[in-house]
From TrEMBL:
Pfam families: Glycos_transf_2
Family classification: Belongs to the glycosyltransferase 2 family. OpgH subfamily.
Native source species: Halomonas campaniensis
Originating gene: opgH
Protein name in the entry: Glucans biosynthesis glucosyltransferase H
NCBIfam families attached to this UniProt entry: PRK05454.1-1, PRK05454.2-1, PRK05454.2-5
Amino acid sequence: MAETMSSSQATPTDLYLERLALETQDREERYKLLVGDLDKHDMASLHAALGGERDCQSKDSDDPAALSVGRRLALAYAEPPLAPPEVLSTDTSGITRLWTAPAMKRTPLAPQKWSTNPFVNIGRRFKRWANGDFRRRKRASPSASWKWVASRRRWILLVLIFGQSIIAANQMRTVLPGQGLEWLEITILSLFVLLFAWVSAGFWTALMGFFQLLRRHDRYAIDSEVGDEPIDDEARTALLVPICNEDVARVFAGVRATLESLRSTGNDRHFDIFILSDTSDPDTAIQETYAWLVLCRDLDAFGQVFYRRRQRRVKRKSGNLDDFCRRWGALYRYMLVLDADSVMSGQCLTRLVQMMEVHANVGIIQTAPRASGRLNLYARMQQFATRVYGPLFTAGLHFWQLGESHYWGHNAIIRLAPFMQHCILAPLPGKGSMSGEILSHDFVEAALMRRAGLGVWIAYQLEGSYEEMPPNLLDELNRDRRWCHGNLMNFRLFFSQGIHPVHRAVFLTGLMSYLSAPLWCLFLVLSTALLAVHTFSTPDYFPEPGMLFPVWPQWNPTLAVGLFGVTALLLFLPKLLSVLLVWIQGSRRFGGPLKVLASMVLESLFSMLLAPVRMLFHTRFVLTSLMGWAVQWRSPSRENSDTTWGDAFRAHWSQTLIGAVWAAGVYVMEPTFLWWLSPIVVALMVSIPVSALSSRVSLGRFCFQRRLFRIPDETQPPRVLRRMVSLLSRMNTGMAAPSFAQVVVDPVPNALATALATSRHNDVEPIRRRRAERVARGVRMGPAAMSRLERLDFLDDPVMLSQLHYHIWDDSMAHHSWFDCGLPGRESKHLPTFN
């Protein structure tokens, strides 16, 4: 500050008014600031004069800059005003405040303790029976007939899976040299049965989904009895967007496109939107508030779009939803949860509410989000897979599960009253990595909703629900690391009291989604070990004493080929059926019939290359989770980012080495066996180039131009997606929020941040003294010396932020970096517009 003063030969008040005048809209007001008769005796007098106070001592002298917050905002945003009077007002202390959320209507929430010990649960049931008060729980359902149908279908599914697995196990036994009688072969056979049953379950799910979609009529679909009924005025829905250190432009482009689509239906009066932030980065938090203000000003959405950033970030996403339910849940009948990358059309949102209104005993309706929006080759192949194969599996899940279905945590509507009463999650008891806060909350919330007697359904035919895929393999694996730990934790609830058998199966399938990797890995290792045993050991032709005839080891390659073919058929037939369904329903939007087939073949080959890589990564995830290693809970990338060769090498060098050593060892033992193992070891050895090249946007664009991996949302993009892409492009080039230092130093950004700060503490001596100490330290040390948490504390506290602003301008000994970083140039920080 001293250097600035000496170079300009101006007083701090003159410099302050010059900076404020730069942001002032009205020319006359700007002239008054520069040559008017404002009291510029000192900074306190100047703020009092700006605030309309003749006597600066009439207000609390600890925070002189608070007097001018409203005036600074009025000068910068004269026409149109920054916000309506009911939004931009003053609090009980007279400090200007910008209200970002509605008035609270608190509801007490209390999670129920978990009972995960099966013996304790059996004992409690026996005790109730002995006391004569054992009664079967009555479960309501949206339809009187679907439960019987679902039960019959599930018994059929179990017979198909286990019958098929038993036949395959018998075939596998005849393939093994010792006919499955040795301990090593018994272990291999047991692993084979588990893995084959897992593959069989997926096959029958996809097969029934194919027939379901081929019929085009499902009497048990959740929307089969729903018309276009008007929505009751009391049926208000909150759209919740939980975010944490996300790409701000992408989040708000999606929210804005969703809101505009909703308004086009004329039903937007039934919906409010809440941006629920757990962001811990101060600069990102500032960007979020600016983006919220821009959205509200452009669309006149004050009172409809709200923003809240939590200061106490507990339980991650589920805690964020709990916080909303506790504060505002009583104001709404439904909540609809979106992800940071979600986009939904107004027709889809309206339809979900209409379904809920018709089916009073439904607690959750999950849509089937369609993946779109990525340009990387890897992501485009995943988008193609989810768009072509995904409908079969989703329809198949609905066929087997009906009203005891999945909830995936986003793009789903939830009935709020039972959710608040029954689905608040308590931490898992005990110590270690498998206890504490529940990470994968969605499966558990669905199970609790069904335990409360309400149905959980998938609206698999509903269009207008979209999401994005991870752009590359490494980002997907980073996400899988969190999901793996969460699903392992959830399996502790398998024996929890009152959970429906189908949701116990959901916990089991969630476990097998990741446990199948180490089981497969162990199966391959033991198969190699079996080869080594028969290569380096002398066969025992007379295993029992007194035998007259030798027992010859048998190897039947014909049976092995047949078993391999059956397994491959179970894995790849659903993909062929998916392509057939696309041909029947029309393949033009997928690039044409030949392009769909070529894309399926290429995607299948690519999946074969990635399967062994995922196997080793998931095996490591399972082991590290069980050993208690910490999970890094970072938000996934929302950009079309390429994987560098260095990142690919650091991530995959160990898989490459394992593949090379494995191949060499098998070649030494039995060269012919290497042909059977080549899909595994070759995929591991080429994992580095596959990971790096598949992330390339250029290759993705090349395939798009040749109509490979084309999806309908690229050929004929829906209006809501086109609008989101247009907004995202404009926001990436036009949105420039100030940094933390600018928020502290620059008069208008500081006034805006002070008005947005939400902490309101009682004016007591300990708090006043603590504020003074922290402000004094910040003035002396500069922004670089402040930690991220300290910056967030200042952004949350309007008094500290205002005091820091005042003392930096008033104290000649303030650290010079405040002005170097806080006043970088003469560019305007006015809120842009994207109308």
